[in-house]
């Protein structure tokens, strides 16, 4: 989705009935690292009830930060834990 916002996860998840929605967002030009990605993940999002604290974020994904291959493994592990715990964001246990 071009020019989308993170909150679009809620609509996508609700429409598709998804248990986990993972969104990769490129950083805005002009910030410190314009080639960086961030991952926003949320468990069972709903437009009316999902709040920002329900999201889990992995940021600084780029060659000089968290390398993309390593980030991919972290994201897969995160999705598995979300499904196991039926939670995301501050509701997840470590």
From TrEMBL:
Gene3D superfamilies xrefs: Ethanolamine ammonia-lyase light chain (EutC)
Pfam family, one: EutC
Superkingdom of source: Bacteria
GO MF annotation terms: cobalamin binding; ethanolamine ammonia-lyase activity
Gene Ontology cellular component terms for the protein in this record: ethanolamine ammonia-lyase complex
Record bears the keyword DNA repair: no
Enzyme Commission (EC) number: 4.3.1.7
Keywords recorded for this protein, A-Z: Bacterial microcompartment, Cobalamin, Cobalt, Lyase
Gene Ontology biological-process annotations: amino acid metabolic process
Protein's name according to its UniProt entry: Ethanolamine ammonia-lyase small subunit
Organism (species): Klebsiella pneumoniae
